[in-house]
Design a protein that fits this description.
By secondary structure, the chain is mostly helical. It contains ten helices and no strands.
Length: 191
C-alpha cells in the first residue's frame, strides 16, 4: 500500500500524463489522424474520467478546465459524446474560479460540447458572455471560437442575421490569422 505522499505523487504523475495525452490528442483530432485520436481517447477514457474527477474534487479547476478543453473535440466525436454535456455542465459550475481568459476558453469548450445547432443556440447567452470575456482577455482563439458560436445561435434563432454573418466572417478570418486552418474550414462550412 502507498503512503499518503506516495499516493499524491502517483496521482500527480497520472494527471501530468493525462494532460500530455490530451495535448497530443487535441492536435491529432484536427487532422488526418482524427479517427486514431478518437479511438485512443476512447481507450483511455476511464483513466481520463478518473483524473478529471480527482482534479475537480481537489478544486484544481484550472487544470481540470485545460484537460476538458483539450479533450472536448475527441469527446464529442466519440461514442461517449452524450456524457460530454454532463462534464461541460459540471465544469461550468466551477468557471467563476477561473480568470477571464481561461474561463472564456472553458465556456467555448462547453458550448462546443453541444452536438447540434439547436443546442448551441440554447447556449447563446453563454456564448455572448464567452465572447466578451475572450475579447477582454485578448485571447484570439477564444474570440474566434465564440464568434462562430454566437453566429450559430443567432442564425438558428433567425435573429440579427447581419451580425451573425459578420461574426462568422470575423471568426474565419481570426482562425486563419492564428493558423488554425481546421477551424477556419469548419467556420467556412457553417457559413
Amino acid at each position: 500500500l502507498l503512503g499518503a505522499e506516495e499516493e499524491r505523487e502517483a496521482h500527480e504523475r497520472l494527471a501530468t500524463w493525462c494532460a500530455a495525452l490530451a495535448a497530443e490528442l487535441h492536435v491529432e483530432v484536427r487532422g488526418p489522424g482524427q479517427v486514431a485520436a478518437v479511438e485512443r481517447f476512447v481507450a483511455e477514457l476511464p483513466t481520463i474520467r478518473s483524473v478529471l474527477r480527482r482534479l475537480l474534487d481537489a478544486a484544481d479547476i484550472t487544470r481540470a478546465a485545460e484537460l476538458f478543453e483539450d479533450l472536448v473535440l475527441c469527446w464529442v466525436d466519440s461514442p461517449a459524446s452524450p456524457e460530454t454535456l454532463q462534464w461541460a455542465d459540471e465544469m461550468l459550475g466551477h468557471a467563476d474560479r477561473l480568470e477571464p481568459g481561461p474561463r472564456a476558453r472553458l465556456e467555448v469548450a462547453a458550448i462546443h460540447a453541444q452536438y447540434a445547432f439547436e443546442l448551441i443556440a440554447a447556449k447563446l447567452d453563454l456564448a455572448e458572455k464567452a465572447l466578451r470575456r475572450a475579447e477582454e482577455a485578448g485571447d484570439p482563439f477564444a474570440v474566434a471560437a465564440a464568434q462562430v458560436q454566437v453566429a450559430i445561435g443567432l442564425g438558428w434563432r433567425n435573429i440579427d442575421l447581419d451580425r451573425a454573418s459578420d461574426l462568422a466572417d470575423a471568426s474565419r478570418a481570426g482562425m486563419t490569422a492564428i493558423d488554425e486552418p481546421h477551424w477556419a474550414a469548419i467556420v467556412r462550412e457553417i457559413q
